[in-house]
Amino acid sequence: MGSLEGMASIAEEMAHAIRPFLESEEGAYWPQEGWVLLEEDGDEALLVHRDEHGYAFMSLVREGGTWSWSGASGTGPCPLQYVVPFGLNTVDWRLDTAAAPPGPESTTVAVLLTERECVSGQEIGDRLVGPQLVMTETALHLAFAAVPPPGDAFDCQGNPETSYTVTLPGPLGERTLVEGLATGLSLDDYLP
User: Fold this and answer.
1) Which of 17, 136, 153, 176 shows its CA 20 to 30 Å from the CA of 46?
2) pLDDT at 155 over 80
3) DSSP one-letter code for 178
């Protein structure tokens, strides 16, 4: 049975809402104490726990004035990112390892794009927005987004990678390629 003694930083009603999960067979593998309220907007709340393994999150919903557990997830390090403009989907990118790696004289960079949100495995195609490029003396910040496909319901079967070649405004030089949505901050910077 899980102990709630280390949960003083969350409201008692939230602690009671997560108790059934923590006392379940699956919940026994989750941190039993030390949960912190990360965000609450009235009807939804997000709790976080940090330890040497990374982060664990629990989400709660309030229905009829009562909080109830609605899910849990875990992750390793948690770098914070900017969000894409409202109404667009986030697109992750990585270097295309099948292409020659970019060097100082490169004026193009081959990347593979993957839409983060569930879109029933559809290709990005003409829905791609970007790239957004910011070249500084030391870095090339690169970001993409996508217009969501038409429709209201999509499954999460995984999205295909799309090859894309970014044309640079000049040679890459000694610049480092950087995820343009990265803030340079981590959730660690904000937790007690």
Assistant:
1) 153
2) yes
3) E
